[in-house]
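Review form for a predicted model. The reviewer records the input and the model, then writes brief findings.
Reviewer: anonymous (R2)
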Amino acid sequence: MNEVGYDFASFGNHEFDYTLPQLQKLIDKAKYQYLCCNLTYTAKDGKGLTGYKAYEIKTYGDIKVAFVGIDTPESFTKSTPTYFQDANGNFVYSFAEGNKGADLYNKVQETVDAAKKDGATYVVALAHLGVDESSEPWRSTDLIANTTGIDAVLDGHSHSTIAMELVKNKDGKEIPLSSTGTKLVNIGKLTISDGVFTTELVSDYAAKDDTTDVFVKSIQEKNEALVNTVVARTSVDLTTKHSDGTRAIRNRETNLGDLCADAYRAVSGADIAPSSTAAASVPISPRAILLTARSSRSIRMATRSASSKQPVRRSLTRWNGQPATPWRLSPTARTLLAKWAASCRFPV
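Model under review:
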């Protein structure tokens, strides 16, 4: 992002996946400004994230545009909850998540009003809220309907592809909402012309910036050997769907999630190793499995109480009520996974 030349970035739930100290390192290295108006550190020890702002104003000719960052309160559960807690398990961060959405709407409205008072002609929200029904009352559509003064919302989180949708705000004014989908399939374009805001998606581009292309390829080459390491093999489809073809992620157990849980258990020596199905969201057909898992969840060690009369069962993984299909780890893969597990283990 430094190489490409971003001006701003807003937090999303996955920015927190690799722990907050790691995020702080990235904020410190960024040549662009991180924005988030609704993330607040509530403890009094001064140890919270620093270096991000609620908004920033950029001048284009004689027009001043305020960019406001907004992150979903679902970050608590769609990242790792313990990262937002102190050593005693108390939450020390807030995403303005309370009062059935009202706290978020009020926090954003307060920020928009402050930006306008600071001289902004227009306000653009850089949001990570999404439009999924399960994200209510924190969806971008909910936010627009309960605020005024925002001129456009550039959204993320739900991976929705929205060129431009007009959503009425609290005053009944139609506000453009746009979302580019995922994995840079589209690039979003916002145009301001005579006070009129329009958004569109650009996908028919072929030319690449030579300098950036060389830079990206240099990173890919450094990691090529690692990501092409075979860590396991499967003779069956490892799926992310129900038997009827509908999405199973975050809804029920999958055999792909079972494989990940068994890997965590094997390398950590634990009796039980839960894994979110959302951490394994890409199906795998029968073949070698490469070391490309993006899951950043820490392995947490747990011990049974001394008063327990029975040891915890070695494996609790099941697929549709049956034992999960066995899989094999190569010695090299065991070594790599063990090193990875040791490096990311988060003490209880």
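Findings: Residues 293-328, 344-348 have pLDDT under 50 and may be disordered.
Further findings: The radius of gyration is 23 Å.
Recommendation: see findings above.
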